[in-house]
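Could you help me review a protein record that somebody else here produced? What it holds is a sequence and that sequence's fold in token form. I have pasted the whole thing underneath without changing anything:
=====
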Amino acid sequence: MASTSETAAPRARGGLTRRRRRQLVLGGEYGVFVVAVVLFVVLADWKSLHENFANWSVAKGLFPDIITVGLRNTVIYTVTGFALGLVGGLVIALMRLSSALPYRWFAMAYIEVFRGLPALLIFIFVGTGIPLAFPGASLPGGVYGQAAVALGLVSAAYMAETIRAGIEAVPRGQTEAARSLGMSQSRAMRTIVVPQAFRVVIPPLTNELVLLFKDSSLALFIGVSLTQRELTKFGRDLASQQGNTTPILVAGLCYLLVTIPLGYLARRLEARQKRGRR
């Protein structure tokens, strides 16, 4: 009798089984979503949205310049910034793991500062602070060099922590085995530990590339010319000229053409990595 009363208790308290309550809650969530979609479809001014955000006559006038100028420059800024950030991140990560106290202090300070500051401030500092600090000096590549350095400084701080975690994930037995074969500490780190660490950190580094691709839009704050505009600047300028926001929508679609495949690649790499650990 006791077991029967315990089984019936959940139904007696609320009049419904736990499974039925879950079904009702899920049905309510679907209902709210459907109502929201229906309200949007019914209440939205589709004519105005089409004219201002999806005007085909304005959109087709953006090509091929939005690809040959906007997207091309965005890719250049991203790739060069990522390359500098990867090299800098590796150096900072090794300094963070160094037995020399000053190196560790510098690496910790760098990571905390550049992860704590908004990327916009870094772009402004590189664009205006470096010329003031070093009169007459200029970075190679002009605006391209400035954008690469700004993105590299920001991404290096994040990549350093990612790479450090990857290095620490490599079993210590790998280093001990290399040392037992007569390798120096630096050679073991360079030839054994770091290559294995990069296999671990490839997925998060791919995610960092996606973030960097979007952060490249901040290049507009260092004063780009018409031929140096990235996607965001290109879309904003054309939107102002045309009096229509379609160029901004098209620029956003160009971002998605790159970020969605990269995000999918990162997820696939993470899934493959998890399968390899089983």
